[in-house]
Amino acid sequence: MIFANLQLQPGDDAERLRSLGLPVSARCGPRQPPHLTQPCAALEGCRCRIYADRPEYCRQFECVLFKSVQAGRTQTDEALRIIATARDRAEKVRGLLCALGDKDEHVALSARFRRTTIRLKAMDLTEETAEVYGQLTLAVHDLNLLVHEAFYPGNVKRAHW
């Protein structure tokens, strides 16, 4: 729900994923492989409805927080608090984006933030809009820090908000 695209890997069956209801984008060139847009259409609540057929990236991804719980470095109740905090921060970003006119829930938060930024830079902002945009910028930063600290392995490329 946060990042823009999930690139398909060699061996991922784009047609199969389409048949399962996922919007697979076509190649945009030799360097741009097909990808799934986010938020993921297969996510229902906290579960993947195509788990057995999920793309290779999803199969290989290991959440840092989950691995920490498995290794005994983080207690389950603390992990659940971190997850709740991440959800709260994402909801705050959604609310601020909505307040600034972006209500498209079918687009990743990062993409919505980028396009809102571009749109607002082209406008003369009221004091109120500037204040909300400042809150949004801080909320996106807070969410990004938590997501990368708690959920993503150190060698994963950082999101570009």
What does this entry look like structurally?
The protein folds into two domains: about 5-60; about 65-150, no CATH class. It has six helices and five strands. The protein has helices at about 15-20, 55-60, 65-70, 75-100, 110-120, 125-150; strands at about 5, 25, 35, 45, 45-50. It has a three-stranded antiparallel beta sheet. α5 packs antiparallel against α6 (about 125-150). The longest helix has 24 residues, at about 75-100.
Task: Quickly list its features.
mainly alpha, 2 domains, about 160 residues, 6 helices, single chain, three-stranded antiparallel sheet, globular
Give the helices and strands, then pairings.
Blueprint: E1 5-7, H1 14-19, E2 24-25, E3 35-37, E4 43-44, E5 47-48, H2 56-60, H3 64-70, H4 76-99, H5 109-121, H6 127-150
Antiparallel strand pairs: 1-3, 2-3, 4-5
Helix pairs in contact: 4-5, 4-6, 5-6
Give a concise summary.
This protein is mainly α and 161 residues long.
Q: Report the strand count.
A: 5
Number of domains: 2
Q: Biggest sheet, open or closed, and with what strands and sense?
A: 3 strands, antiparallel
Helix content: 40-55%
The end-to-end span amounts to 13 Å
Uncertain spans: 155-161
> Rg to the nearest angstrom?
17 Å
- Going across the biggest sheet, name each strand in turn: 1-3-2
> What is the succession of H and E elements?
EHEEEEHHHHH
- Tally of DSSP helical segments: 6
Identify the overall geometry: globular
pLDDT averaged residue by residue: 88
Q: What structural class do helix, strand and pairing data support?
A: mainly alpha
Strand content: 5-15%
